[in-house]
Amino acid sequence: MGDNKLIFEEETYKIIGACMKVHRNLGSGFLESVYQEALEKEFKSQKIDFQRQLKLRLMYEGQPMKKYFVADFICYDKILLEIKAASFLVKDAEAQVINYLKSTELPLGLLVNFGQKSLIWKRFINTTNPRNP
Fold first, then answer.
1. Residues 117, 102: Cα–Cα separation, whole Å
2. Which of 15, 17, 40, 66 is the most exposed place for a label (fewest CB within 10 A)?
3. Residue 79 maps to which CATH number?
4. Domain containing residue 52
C-alpha cells in the first residue's frame, strides 16, 4: 500500500482554513484587494508564514528572465497562493497558476476563489520541480 499523504498537507490545511474563515466573515462580492487584505490579517492572526505581493522572477531553461510577476501570496516559502474574486473560475486562472509554478520552480500552488457563494479552491503540484518531496 502506497503513501497517500499530500505534499505540504498541514500547511495547505492551514492556508485553506484561513481562506474559509475570511470567506465566512466577508462572503462573496468584494474586490480581490479586500480579500487580500483580510487574508493578510488572518494569516498574521494564525501565525501562517507568508509574503504578500512578492515579485517573482520568471525562469526559462534554468535562466532568470527580466520579466517577473507579482504573486498574491507565497506561504511557507514554497506555496504559491493566487486568489480571485470572480463569479466563477475560468481555465485561464488555472493556466496562470500552472505557468507560475513552472516558471518560478515553486512546488505547490493554490488557486482560491472568494467570488462564489461557497469558497472554491484548487491545488496544483509542480510535477517538473525537483524541490517536491
1. 31
2. 66
3. 3.90.320.10
4. 9-125
